[in-house]
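Got a spare moment? Tell me how you read both lines of this record:
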Amino acid sequence: MNQLLAAAVLFLILLLAGCTDDSGSTASQPTDNNPLPESLANAPSAVETVDVATEYESSPQFLGNPYFADYPDDPFARNIWDLETFADRLFLGAGNSANTGPSRNMGPVAVISFDGEQFVTEYEVDDEQIALFRVVDDRLYIPGHDALQSWDYGNIYRRGSDASSWEKLRTIAEAVHVLDLLLFGDRLFAAVGAAEDGQVAISDDGGEHWLSQSLGDGRIYNLLPVADTLFAVKKIPVNYPDYRSVLKYQPESDIFTELEIGVDELLPGTEFGFPLATLHRITVVGEKSYFIGAEKYDDFHPLPLGLYVATYDGELDVERIPLKSGVVPRDLLIDGELLYLLTSSQGRDGVQIEVLRMNLQEGEGFESVISFDYDSFARSFALLNRDLYFAIGCDLNDREDLDAESNDHLPAVTGDILRIRAINNRG
């Protein structure tokens, strides 16, 4: 009897071993709503990840779905496109500015904040989507992604130390889309998509007044600062490698000039499924800028493909940082000397959400901080009082999605906000 029991146990062990992937974990296929892009399934070998001392609780806490009341039947519009911490609060932005697909051309959009205890609607923007927050000189800015008003001017919104200080600056001429915003030197720069061309607008007074210069056809999607040099990035057509996608700012003449840089230089070693690419989540770390390279499946929304780092020493140089096969980079944040990377991959039960961390002083290697499974991926994340916050998202991955008006097939959990507490924050 004992021999039979031992044989049965041995058989069970062998059976389980045969059901694991190369890493030793039991793998399942990506969900139908969020399959892995083919280019990621064949990504380069991984940067080695190692376990670190436990700093966080193992399971996420569900905090709510704050945009559900605004978009009960529109999960795509509940995507939290950006999370930002400011004034000891977490700020969330949702909506949808796309002209195709489900939940198209939404807005106005509520600005919702969270103080660790409750969600509060602080303000409302007259745009179709909140795509980005920027903290500049102790103020929180929102670039007006797609104005609901006339195209004569575009919007910028800003907040000071309290919720009563929100204000709208409708001061950038012809700015149908304000797609990026940053402080360079002591001046504010805005990336603009106008009706007829792409522009960069420059302000010397925090956004009250602007001078704009046309940079030719196509919107300006990104402002990329690298080693005290500023670049403007236009559309990146993946099938036209000679297309000049990058312009360099010349401070002495106050103009931008074209560089012979296209898709091969900006996103090396990358395979694409859609005709246009973009840069996403640009994060400045000293003399380097890290970003996520993505393809665009509609007017603006990114489908991430890889992690990259840019340096500049007379020439702009971009390298792809290899990640584990099947891992999708989603978001980046910097906390002192630590660079955090949010990723997703197939999990045992749905999608595995994992946070990796790199100590920038100790070398270029990621370590795993926390991972858990959920019904869809986390699009954005943030740190507030050492706790980790996650916003659950969804993507449109094929042509049928782009033509569909129904949201029925998209994950109902889109817009969920989760928290994993730091161990010493229990209470």
User: Anything to note?
Assistant: The first strand starts at residue 61 and ends at 64. The chain has a mean pLDDT of 87. The helical segments are 2-17, 38-41, 263-266, 399-403.
